[in-house]
Design brief:
- InterPro entries: ARM-like, ARM-type_fold.
- This is HEAT repeat domain-containing protein.
- The chain is mainly alpha-helical and 161 residues long.
- The chain folds into two domains: 1-62, Leucine-rich Repeat Variant (Alpha Horseshoe), CATH 1.25.10.10; 66-161, Leucine-rich Repeat Variant, CATH 1.25.10.10.
- It has eleven helices and no strands.
- It has helices at residues 3-10, 15-27, 29-33, 36-42, 48-60, 69-73, 80-93, 99-109, 115-128, 133-143, 148-159.
- It is elongated, with a radius of gyration of 16 Å.
Length: 161
């Protein structure tokens, strides 16, 4: 199957077609890299198998292209699974400007952010390693969290700034 057809099939309303497309992406990281945003969205697919294959594709693909940064940031407040993957991919990307780290810091500070997404945002801030007052404050506050995992991740991220 051609990569362009696989990408088109990711948006299909037909479950079997969507499932086959996510499986194809999981087996070909190069194809997955061209379909990052649809794959992120499919991690929240109502069909668990499609969601799992979309996650598998994203796990295997490595860092996204820098051009994907803004589109990924637009997904930071999407459904939890989608937001988790968008944050993870931005952390792998390690952007060089402060706009994305500031958005991640806002996720960390927002009490409505699901804990797994918040923890992933903390991890991403540590990976990116760019400091600003917003990032510093968010990580210092998170380091005081009653959640041992959140506090540990924030302490580690602070050490990377």
């Amino acid at each position: 199957m051609e990569p362009s057809q696989i990408i088109q099939d990711l948006g299909s309303g037909d479950l079997k077609t969507r499932l086959a497309a996510t499986q194809a992406c999981a087996k070909s990281p190069d194809v997955a890299k061209t379909a990052i945003i649809p794959l992120c969205r499919l991690t929240a697919d109502p069909n668990e198998e499609v969601a799992q294959w979309a996650s598998a594709a994203l796990e295997e693909m490595g860092a996204p292209a820098s051009e994907e940064q803004d589109a990924l940031a637009d997904l930071f407040t999407a459904e939890e699974a989608t937001a988790y993957w968008a944050v993870t991919l931005v952390g792998r990307l390690k952007p060089k400007d402060l706009a994305i780290p500031k958005q991640l810091a806002q996720l960390v500070e927002n009490e409505k952010t699901p804990e797994e997404v918040q923890n992933r945002a903390i991890w991403a801030l540590g990976q990116i390693g760019l400091n600003s007052p917003e990032v510093q404050t968010a990580l210092e506050n998170a380091a005081k969290s009653p959640s041992p995992r959140t506090a540990r991740l924030a302490t580690k991220a602070l050490a990377n700034l």
